[in-house]
Amino acid sequence: MARVVVDVMLKPEILDPQGQAVQRALPRLGFDGIADVRQGKRFELEVEGPVDEDALARIHKMAETFLANTVIEDFVVRVES
Amino acid sequence: MARVVVDVMLKPEILDPQGQAVQRALPRLGFDGIADVRQGKRFELEVEGPVDEDALARIHKMAETFLANTVIEDFVVRVES
Amino acid sequence: MSLDTVKHATDTPDADQPWAELGLKEDEYARIREILGRRPTGAELAMYSVMWSEHCSYKSSKVHLKQFGDKAPENDAMLVGIGENAGVVDVGQGYAVTFKVESHNHPSYIEPYQGAATGVGGIVRDILAMGARPVAVVDPLRFGAADHPDTKRVLPGVVAGIGGYGNCLGLPNIGGEVVFDPCYQGNPLVNAGCIGVMKHEDIHLAQASGPGNKVILYGARTGGDGIGGVSVLASETFDATGPAKRPAVQVGDPFQEKLLIECTLEIFGEKLVAGIQDLGGAGLSCATSELASAGSGGMRVDLDTVPLRDATLSPEEILMSESQERMCAIVEPAKVARFLEICEKWDVIATVIGEVTEGERLEIFWHGEQIVDVPPRTVAHEGPVYHRPYARPEWQDALQADDAGKLPRPAGSAELREQVLKLVASPNQASKAWITDQYDRFVQGNTVLAQPEDAGMVRIDEKTNLGVAMATDGNGRYTKLDPYTGAQLALAESYRNVAASGARPLAVSDCLNFGSPEDPGVMWQFAEATRGLADACLKLGTPVTGGNVSLYNQTGDTAIHPTPVVAVLGVIDDVNRRTPIAFAEEGQLIYLLGDTKEEFGGSAWSQVIHDHLGGLPPAVDLDREKLLGEILISASRDGMIDAAHDLSDGGLVQAVVESCLRGGKGARLVVPDGLSAFTFLFSESAGRAIVSVPRSEELRFTDMCGARGLPVTRIGVVDGEEVEVQGEFTLPLAELKRAHEETIPALLV
Amino acid sequence: MTTRVGVVTFPGTLDDRDSLRAVRLAGAEPVSLWHRDKDLKQVDAVVLAGGFSYGDYLRAGAISRFSPVMETVIEQARAGMPVLGICNGFQILTESHLLPGAMLRNNHLHFICRDQKLRVENAETAWTADYEAGQEISVPLKNIDGRYVADERVLDELEAEGRVAFRYLDGNPNGSLRDIAGITNAEGNVVGLMPHPEHAVEPLIGTGRTDGLAFFTSVIKKLVTA
Ligand SMILES: Nc1ncnc2c1ncn2[C@@H]1O[C@H](COP(=O)(O)OP(=O)(O)O)[C@@H](O)[C@H]1O
Ligand SMILES: [Mg+2]
């Protein structure tokens, strides 16, 4: 079985309070030098059958209509090696 | 500035209700052939200065103590190219 | 490893077994061998070890808890008492209410969000298992020092977890407590309570009767969650990793639980179950053995049929798994099809895993081979009982001799004013809105009172306006000074809170949080506290219907303050008559009910101003509490008072400030003759409340108090935009509001 | 003939019974609708109630949006049937693209439950006709994903067309852009908002105010006169 990963991140222009909260906490915890943090979602899909172009196209469609809300989010589909 | 990504996923043996809910919904939406879905978090860190071994070690530490709760989560640190 | 079947165990009597790692004592292991007449199989050993753990068997506390039954007051309302998942009381009009408080302390320290969330999930399933619709939750909490870094980690996670789970279930959160004290550092207390409502005929019990009836497991799939959690976590050492490499923490799925609730209620509605049990600590081991033990016959279970999330689980692990959101029902064969149909409607997985048998054994099979063959009572109800030694600690006398009355008092009005401000801004006395605003208190559309009222109150019948109220209280500082009195004070306060809301106190649940029972000093605290609580329940006529014990709350040799948390359930015939705490009407008269004495031991004042804990806690007078309660209830019923607020930690001034802020109105107070302003404001004498009385009701109200012998003192009037203590100081409401409300958010951001 | 108002129950819906009660108190006939049924039982209007349908997993409203009942609701809404989305219902409406924009995690990241003051900006929708434009009301607010966002163009359009139906007053509770608490579609039959009018329909319960009742009386009036 192959694993396909879909990363979903808020669009850059959308405020990401979760990422900001993480970033603000870092110096207090003694971690400096992180200029920005964005927090998103990672989906790991276990795909039955071959991950060919057709399958990837379907997963792309799934990401676009369901896993991500493209009003606010961008996504990337990758095959995990 | 370099980007380092930290992926945080629930450990395989830990229940992932979100991933399950997504997986159960897929066939209804007409997407078949996905045997399992796990949902995790993706952090994108913009790092100031060089991402050398030292910096990576610090980010590793940060992930271990803060970004992930290692009681229930695993994490991976990667430098984005 | 080959399967350790019953036959294999019989054939290999001398095989080494990890009973010690599983938390069993040598004599306990020997007793298991004696019961079975052979060595236990691995699965049997797992079952016994988990069911005989402190957490499941109450082995250290049992002998003391017995008093709650032995000294139970005559009470016609009690329908189901201690021993079931939760007690049930009759609240009239054909309704019954079930309620209980439980702890999820240690898991919440390790993983605050999930620990607290699954704590809510667990107590809600207990209530559901009685046949009731859960209608509200409460959450008494204790954390380390407010400014300790670890509190910043634990508190937000716990609060988010309670909210995340409870909100998602659609249960209004109507009360609780938040207390900070360094003694809870490393041992936060996360207690959660739930109230459920049903009709009398809907009461269900956890028993498996009727040979041929099917055993149905339904809800979430079984995974490797919390294996060993019960036996190891709640056992002697907290840092042991347990027998398996499986996680000790469970992750909750509130969505699944919501489906489980609705599905189960529909199943109850069609009268499809003969017995039912939730799966909590000890999972299937507990559910099957308790159902079989309480039933009439035996039970046979095929473990292969259990739906798994993780196919690699061993049979022992399946039996021990604490995967959340599961229930086990006993169903007549003719009703199975309909049962499964309702589960399908709610997307709930349901599987017949076995049946009730003629025999008297619990038999469990795996791949066709028998791996368990035990008398269920020996697992579930006849576990070990310890008579642990107890002794009054050596330091107790010195602690009590360190009288708080000797502490320096404010030198003048200016200092008095300053101390009042400091008190209302201190973490324990400050507004908890930052926390409680993270809980849905409106859902279900029946919430009459919620935080920051004295008691939470929900309507249970829309036509008649019948309602129930609940308050939870406990004061570890009082209890440390004197465990007997401290436990009684917890009950008295909770009782008073319920009465102040206008409801009649009916019954009690408790969560007893203590240190290690192996420390004779802790055991003495436990013995004294249970004795005090049982005596007080008898006197007040409010039986304990159930509860929970959490031991080993300690780090090294240092135990937490003994912290019995007491929940009182009350009933009110018409929620329109409820009494809020707010002083809302200018010109109304403020009365103090009860006697104020020089009582500062364990007080908030002694803690906030002097960081002191010593002396004796306030004296308890249960007859007075009862009388005060009756007056508050009558006054509410007859419309004589518009507001009432009980007095407890922080004393009178704390209560006045809260009532003023809640109503957005000030108060002018006069120090009564014979009291110093200091004592008037800060004393924590029990058995007191303040009320606001419309002028038209003044005579009727004071006459009633006079006639029934309750001391009543007019102390002021609702007026203006400041709290004024005549001849001493004034504090603008805006300043008090800031002091009261800014503390908690500032600590936690 | 009494007006029939349907309330949809998805798995994880919480405020369905409250909404049914509000419909009844307003004088209409409440009708329960089930997420698996495409059939709307001949109701005249639909309320998508609050809660955590599908646990709010993935995104609030994202999974419910694909349920059978929503196929019909979307179709009927486009044909002009009044549809009100409260909280989770609002999230479902945006996920269904019946209303523009999206709902994100509150800017302070916490669930927040409080009494919330609102201004009714548009008193001409099917659900707000019994209010006055500019009227201030208080109803409970309770959510964790209540931050309304849309791109500038959409926001400008909403403002220009008077489609911002409600705005937060006395402090924006969650970072919603332009203080938007609720919006309507161009036709005024589909309205979504985050606060909970169905929790403000009885004098004794919740906050003790009845400011929310007019939502439900509005739609009855609209349907009777239609
Ligand atoms: N964790 C909590 N969850 C819900 N309500 C809480 C919590 N903590 C405090 N409250 C509520 O805040 C109010 C004040 O709490 P507290 O001062 O402990 O009350 P009291 O002193 O009357 O027992 C009460 O209404 C109580 O139920
Ligand atoms: Mg109180």
TrEMBL record, chains A, B:
GO molecular-function terms, A-Z: phosphoribosylformylglycinamidine synthase activity
Pathway this chain belongs to: Purine metabolism; IMP biosynthesis via de novo pathway; 5-amino-1-(5-phospho-D-ribosyl)imidazole from N(2)-formyl-N(1)-(5-phospho-D-ribosyl)glycinamide: step 1/2
Family as reported in the entry's similarity comment: Belongs to the PurS family.
Gene3D superfamilies named among the record's database cross-references: Phosphoribosylformylglycinamidine synthase subunit PurS (3.30.1280.10)
Self-association and partners: Part of the FGAM synthase complex composed of 1 PurL, 1 PurQ and 2 PurS subunits.
Matching InterPro entries: PurS, PurS-like_sf
Keywords (A to Z) from UniProt: ATP-binding, Cytoplasm, Ligase, Nucleotide-binding, Purine biosynthesis
Protein name as it appears in the record: Phosphoribosylformylglycinamidine synthase subunit PurS
UniProt subcellular location: Cytoplasm
Taxonomic superkingdom: Bacteria
From TrEMBL, chain C:
EC number(s) recorded for this UniProt protein: 6.3.5.3
Record-listed ATP binding positions: Y58, K100, D510, G547
A Pfam family reported for this protein in Swiss-Prot or TrEMBL: FGAR-AT_linker
Top-level EC class: ligase
Boundaries of every PurM-like N-terminal domain copy: 83-198, 453-572
Pathway: Purine metabolism; IMP biosynthesis via de novo pathway; 5-amino-1-(5-phospho-D-ribosyl)imidazole from N(2)-formyl-N(1)-(5-phospho-D-ribosyl)glycinamide: step 1/2
Homology family: Belongs to the FGAMS family.
Active site per the UniProt annotation: H55, H104
Binding site for Mg(2+) 1: E102, N548
All residue ranges annotated as the PurM-like C-terminal domain in the record: 210-366, 585-723
Organism: Streptomyces inusitatus
Positions with a binding annotation for substrate: S103, H104, N105, H106, R125, Q250, E322, S323, Q324, S550
Name under which the protein is recorded: Phosphoribosylformylglycinamidine synthase subunit PurL
UniProt entry keywords in alphabetical sequence: ATP-binding, Cytoplasm, Ligase, Magnesium, Metal-binding, Nucleotide-binding, Purine biosynthesis
UniProt binding sites for Mg(2+) 2: D126, D278
GO biological process entries: 'de novo' IMP biosynthetic process
TrEMBL record, chain D:
Record carries keyword Nucleotide-binding: yes
Active-site annotation: C87 (nucleophile), H196, E198
Subcellular localization(s) per the UniProt record: Cytoplasm
GO cellular component: cytoplasm
One Gene Ontology molecular-function label: glutaminase activity
Family matches, as NCBIfam families: FGAM_synth_I (TIGR01737), PRK03619.1 (NF002957)
Protein's UniProt name: Phosphoribosylformylglycinamidine synthase subunit PurQ
Organism: Streptomyces inusitatus
